[in-house]
Amino acid sequence: KVICFNGSYHGIIDEVIVRSSHKGKSLPAAPGIPSSAVENIIVLNYGEEESLNEIEELCSSGEVAAVLVEPVQSRRCDLQPKQFLKKLREITQKESVCLIFDEVITGFRIHTGGAQSFFGVKADLCTYGKIIGGGMPIGVLSGKARYMDAIDGGHWEYGDDSVPTVGVTYFAGTFVRHPLALRAAKEALTILKEVGVQGLELLNQRTQDFVDELNCYLENCQSNLRFINFGSLLKPKWIENDYMYSDLFFAMLRNEGVHQYDGFPWFINLAHSENDLELVKKTIMSVVHQLQENELMPGAPLEKDGGMPKGARLGKDLNGNPGWFLPHPEKHGQYLQIR
Question: Which CATH class is domain 197-302?
């Protein structure tokens, strides 16, 4: 059997479009998927101690082949359970159960070594996609020889007497090793190599500053909107999950020139300039202000910035009071409060 978690997303094959019933039974999460497709999948709650206890019991019984985990779920990117992942690695390693990280979103984004490097947890198999394709559709599987040898038979070469050393499984696809996707991946990886860990850390900090400033504004005007993030991955989140005018909020953003996918994760990347981010922030604040003025969003609209100089940011001082700040001209990452 394979263990996965509520809230994770692993693509559109039948076996992983699954949910757990109140009684713990695995059920298809979409019409047209037979119950037999998910009968070998066990779905548990992510990041909870009770799940670790159940995983330990299941793994020790010998009936679990693998645990599939999205280390930071794209729909709940504020859930970052480092200790849970470390304990999960300890259990699976002890019982020789394959630990699979789905890093299609977190890979090469939070760190050049992905969530594995960020959390200090080494998986047995890891999947990548999205960013590594440089805009082209791509999927990558990597991992330890013990598991990967089943794809190519282990180490052997054409032109001599060597043969595959282990049995292989069936693996093929129309777009497998597609030359255009591989070229795009090479260019994307070249850029990531040049940028390095430090460059991604700066990108993550830019995103954190973006999120912090927006959340400070949203808290001060008592809006029901907040932004959560994991590095350069961020997502709008409603304090009450059933905000009735959420569609209007996203439509107004698009109407003012900020395109996004309603309710889905957003990403800040290396191509975004400070002017881009400033435009997006001001547009979000403007839309929130308009909705509050028309009593379509909870809270009280704040006054305009009162003629603050260009580049001024709303933030909090050492006492937690709101104020306007400008970047320090000589000290990167530090700010001066406007009095």
Answer: alpha beta
Instruction: Give the list of residues 6+ apart from residue 173 with CB closer than 8 angstroms, or none.
Output: none
Using H for helix, E for strand and C for coil, what is the string for 152-167?
HCCCCCCCCCCCCCCC
Classify domain 2-133+138-174 by CATH number.
Answer: 3.40.640.10
DSSP labels, 250-298: HHHHHHTT----TTS-EE--TT--HHHHHHHHHHHHHHHHHHHHTTSSS
Q: Output the pLDDT for position 306.
A: 45
Model pTM score = 0.87
Amino acid at 250: F
Residue 197 CA to residue 112 CA, distance in Å, equals 6
Reading the block at residue 161, the tokens are 């007497």
* Residue 164, C-beta contacts closer than 8 angstroms, at least 6 positions apart: 152, 153, 154, 156
Of 111, 83, 76, nearest in space to 232 by CA:
111
Q: Is the pLDDT of residue 311 over 70?
A: no
pLDDT digits over 170-214, tens only? 988 888 889 999 999 999 999 999 999 999 999 999 999 999 999
